[in-house]
Amino acid sequence: xxxxxxxxxxxxxxxxxxxxxxxxxxxxxxxxxxxxxxxxxxxxxxxxxxxxxxxxxxxxxxxxxxxxxxxxxxxxxxxxxxxxxxxxxxxxxxxxxxxxxxxxxxxxxxxxxxxxxxxxxxxxxxxxxxxxxxxxxxxxxxxxxxxxxxxxxxxxxxxxxxxxxxxxxxxxxxxxxxxxxxxxxxxxxxxxxxxxxxxxxxxxxxxxxxxxx
Length: 213
Description:
about 210 residues; 9 helices; about 0% strand; elongated; disordered C terminus
Protein backbone atom coordinates (compact mmCIF):
# COMPACT_ATOMS: atom_id res chain seq x y z
CA UNK A 1 0.00 0.00 0.00
CA UNK A 2 2.89 2.37 0.70
CA UNK A 3 4.12 1.99 -2.88
CA UNK A 4 0.64 2.68 -4.23
CA UNK A 5 0.30 5.76 -2.03
CA UNK A 6 3.68 7.02 -3.25
CA UNK A 7 2.41 6.58 -6.82
CA UNK A 8 -0.81 8.45 -5.92
CA UNK A 9 1.14 11.31 -4.35
CA UNK A 10 3.28 11.52 -7.48
CA UNK A 11 0.12 11.91 -9.56
CA UNK A 12 -1.10 14.58 -7.14
CA UNK A 13 2.12 16.57 -7.58
CA UNK A 14 1.82 16.52 -11.38
CA UNK A 15 -1.87 17.44 -11.18
CA UNK A 16 -1.13 20.35 -8.84
CA UNK A 17 1.70 21.59 -11.04
CA UNK A 18 -0.51 21.56 -14.15
CA UNK A 19 -3.48 23.08 -12.33
CA UNK A 20 -1.52 25.98 -10.86
CA UNK A 21 0.07 26.67 -14.24
CA UNK A 22 -3.28 26.62 -16.01
CA UNK A 23 -4.80 28.97 -13.42
CA UNK A 24 -2.70 31.78 -14.91
CA UNK A 25 -4.62 31.35 -18.16
CA UNK A 26 -7.60 32.95 -16.41
CA UNK A 27 -5.71 36.25 -16.46
CA UNK A 28 -4.73 35.72 -20.09
CA UNK A 29 -8.28 34.99 -21.23
CA UNK A 30 -9.58 38.06 -19.36
CA UNK A 31 -7.00 40.28 -21.08
CA UNK A 32 -7.72 38.77 -24.50
CA UNK A 33 -11.48 39.14 -24.04
CA UNK A 34 -11.16 42.72 -22.84
CA UNK A 35 -8.82 43.57 -25.72
CA UNK A 36 -11.19 42.07 -28.27
CA UNK A 37 -14.11 44.04 -26.85
CA UNK A 38 -12.22 47.33 -26.77
CA UNK A 39 -10.84 46.97 -30.29
CA UNK A 40 -14.23 46.00 -31.68
CA UNK A 41 -16.04 48.90 -30.01
CA UNK A 42 -13.38 51.60 -30.51
CA UNK A 43 -11.89 50.71 -33.89
CA UNK A 44 -14.73 48.57 -35.33
CA UNK A 45 -12.23 45.78 -36.02
CA UNK A 46 -12.89 42.10 -35.36
CA UNK A 47 -10.71 39.02 -35.76
CA UNK A 48 -11.90 35.41 -35.84
CA UNK A 49 -8.46 34.28 -34.71
CA UNK A 50 -8.59 36.32 -31.50
CA UNK A 51 -12.19 35.31 -30.85
CA UNK A 52 -11.31 31.63 -31.25
CA UNK A 53 -8.29 32.12 -29.01
CA UNK A 54 -10.72 33.07 -26.23
CA UNK A 55 -12.58 29.80 -26.71
CA UNK A 56 -9.35 27.78 -26.79
CA UNK A 57 -8.09 29.38 -23.59
CA UNK A 58 -11.40 28.77 -21.84
CA UNK A 59 -11.34 25.14 -22.99
CA UNK A 60 -7.77 24.76 -21.72
CA UNK A 61 -8.73 26.13 -18.30
CA UNK A 62 -11.80 23.91 -18.03
CA UNK A 63 -10.19 20.67 -19.23
CA UNK A 64 -6.68 20.90 -17.77
CA UNK A 65 -7.86 22.10 -14.35
CA UNK A 66 -10.55 19.42 -13.94
CA UNK A 67 -8.11 16.93 -12.40
CA UNK A 68 -6.77 19.58 -9.99
CA UNK A 69 -10.35 20.41 -8.98
CA UNK A 70 -10.92 16.72 -8.20
CA UNK A 71 -7.67 16.49 -6.25
CA UNK A 72 -8.65 19.58 -4.20
CA UNK A 73 -12.16 18.13 -3.60
CA UNK A 74 -13.76 21.25 -5.08
CA UNK A 75 -16.31 19.59 -7.37
CA UNK A 76 -19.97 20.20 -6.56
CA UNK A 77 -21.47 17.84 -4.00
CA UNK A 78 -25.00 17.61 -2.63
CA UNK A 79 -23.89 18.70 0.84
CA UNK A 80 -27.38 18.59 2.29
CA UNK A 81 -27.35 14.82 1.69
CA UNK A 82 -23.70 13.94 2.30
CA UNK A 83 -23.70 15.97 5.53
CA UNK A 84 -26.20 13.51 7.02
CA UNK A 85 -23.98 10.51 6.25
CA UNK A 86 -21.13 9.15 8.32
CA UNK A 87 -17.53 9.69 7.24
CA UNK A 88 -17.10 6.01 6.41
CA UNK A 89 -20.26 6.00 4.28
CA UNK A 90 -19.00 9.02 2.33
CA UNK A 91 -15.67 7.24 1.82
CA UNK A 92 -17.46 4.20 0.42
CA UNK A 93 -19.52 6.41 -1.91
CA UNK A 94 -16.30 8.01 -3.20
CA UNK A 95 -14.63 4.63 -3.66
CA UNK A 96 -17.53 3.10 -5.59
CA UNK A 97 -18.15 6.28 -7.56
CA UNK A 98 -14.53 6.52 -8.71
CA UNK A 99 -14.39 2.82 -9.54
CA UNK A 100 -17.75 2.41 -11.27
CA UNK A 101 -18.38 5.84 -12.83
CA UNK A 102 -15.32 8.11 -13.05
CA UNK A 103 -12.66 5.65 -14.22
CA UNK A 104 -14.81 3.84 -16.86
CA UNK A 105 -16.02 7.19 -18.21
CA UNK A 106 -12.51 8.67 -18.51
CA UNK A 107 -11.17 5.47 -20.09
CA UNK A 108 -13.93 5.55 -22.73
CA UNK A 109 -13.29 9.22 -23.45
CA UNK A 110 -9.53 8.69 -23.84
CA UNK A 111 -10.17 5.72 -26.12
CA UNK A 112 -12.57 7.72 -28.32
CA UNK A 113 -10.57 10.96 -28.36
CA UNK A 114 -7.28 9.34 -29.38
CA UNK A 115 -8.26 8.66 -33.03
CA UNK A 116 -10.28 11.89 -33.11
CA UNK A 117 -7.25 14.02 -32.25
CA UNK A 118 -4.90 11.97 -34.42
CA UNK A 119 -7.09 12.41 -37.51
CA UNK A 120 -7.30 16.17 -36.91
CA UNK A 121 -3.50 16.31 -36.61
CA UNK A 122 -2.91 14.26 -39.77
CA UNK A 123 -5.08 16.52 -41.93
CA UNK A 124 -3.75 19.66 -40.20
CA UNK A 125 -7.33 20.73 -39.54
CA UNK A 126 -8.10 24.45 -39.50
CA UNK A 127 -11.15 26.42 -38.44
CA UNK A 128 -13.75 26.88 -41.20
CA UNK A 129 -14.06 30.55 -40.19
CA UNK A 130 -12.11 33.10 -42.21
CA UNK A 131 -8.80 33.81 -40.52
CA UNK A 132 -9.51 31.15 -37.89
CA UNK A 133 -6.94 29.13 -35.95
CA UNK A 134 -5.64 25.61 -36.37
CA UNK A 135 -7.99 23.19 -34.62
CA UNK A 136 -6.05 20.06 -33.64
CA UNK A 137 -4.31 21.67 -30.61
CA UNK A 138 -7.73 22.57 -29.20
CA UNK A 139 -8.93 19.00 -29.72
CA UNK A 140 -5.73 17.73 -28.11
CA UNK A 141 -6.67 19.69 -24.98
CA UNK A 142 -9.74 17.47 -24.64
CA UNK A 143 -7.58 14.36 -24.72
CA UNK A 144 -5.02 15.80 -22.31
CA UNK A 145 -7.75 16.83 -19.88
CA UNK A 146 -9.29 13.36 -19.75
CA UNK A 147 -5.87 11.70 -19.41
CA UNK A 148 -5.12 13.91 -16.39
CA UNK A 149 -8.58 13.20 -14.95
CA UNK A 150 -8.08 9.46 -15.45
CA UNK A 151 -4.79 9.42 -13.55
CA UNK A 152 -6.19 11.64 -10.80
CA UNK A 153 -9.14 9.26 -10.50
CA UNK A 154 -6.68 6.41 -9.96
CA UNK A 155 -4.94 8.49 -7.29
CA UNK A 156 -8.21 9.22 -5.49
CA UNK A 157 -9.18 5.54 -5.65
CA UNK A 158 -5.86 4.49 -4.07
CA UNK A 159 -6.11 7.09 -1.30
CA UNK A 160 -9.72 6.18 -0.50
CA UNK A 161 -8.85 2.46 -0.38
CA UNK A 162 -5.94 3.24 1.95
CA UNK A 163 -8.30 5.04 4.33
CA UNK A 164 -10.97 2.33 4.27
CA UNK A 165 -8.90 -0.84 4.28
CA UNK A 166 -5.47 0.06 5.68
CA UNK A 167 -6.36 2.66 8.28
CA UNK A 168 -4.32 5.48 6.74
CA UNK A 169 -5.31 9.05 7.74
CA UNK A 170 -7.53 10.89 5.31
CA UNK A 171 -5.51 13.63 3.61
CA UNK A 172 -8.28 14.76 1.26
CA UNK A 173 -8.78 18.56 1.37
CA UNK A 174 -12.13 19.66 2.78
CA UNK A 175 -13.07 21.75 -0.27
CA UNK A 176 -14.51 25.24 -0.07
CA UNK A 177 -18.12 24.33 0.74
CA UNK A 178 -17.11 21.69 3.29
CA UNK A 179 -14.58 24.04 4.83
CA UNK A 180 -17.17 26.79 5.21
CA UNK A 181 -19.57 24.38 6.88
CA UNK A 182 -16.88 23.22 9.28
CA UNK A 183 -15.94 26.82 10.07
CA UNK A 184 -19.55 27.71 10.82
CA UNK A 185 -19.88 24.71 13.11
CA UNK A 186 -16.82 25.77 15.12
CA UNK A 187 -18.15 29.33 15.43
CA UNK A 188 -21.52 28.17 16.77
CA UNK A 189 -21.86 28.49 20.57
CA UNK A 190 -21.69 25.23 22.46
CA UNK A 191 -24.50 24.38 24.85
CA UNK A 192 -23.37 23.56 28.39
CA UNK A 193 -24.08 20.05 29.51
CA UNK A 194 -27.25 19.68 31.48
CA UNK A 195 -28.92 22.97 30.61
CA UNK A 196 -29.54 25.84 28.23
CA UNK A 197 -26.88 28.44 27.32
CA UNK A 198 -26.46 31.25 29.84
CA UNK A 199 -27.68 34.71 28.68
CA UNK A 200 -24.92 36.61 26.95
CA UNK A 201 -25.16 39.69 29.20
CA UNK A 202 -24.78 37.70 32.40
CA UNK A 203 -21.85 35.72 31.01
CA UNK A 204 -20.08 38.93 30.01
CA UNK A 205 -20.72 40.44 33.44
CA UNK A 206 -19.21 37.43 35.17
CA UNK A 207 -16.12 37.56 32.96
CA UNK A 208 -15.74 41.28 33.75
CA UNK A 209 -15.75 40.56 37.47
CA UNK A 210 -19.19 41.94 38.33
CA UNK A 211 -21.05 40.15 41.11
CA UNK A 212 -23.97 38.05 40.07
CA UNK A 213 -27.36 39.37 41.09
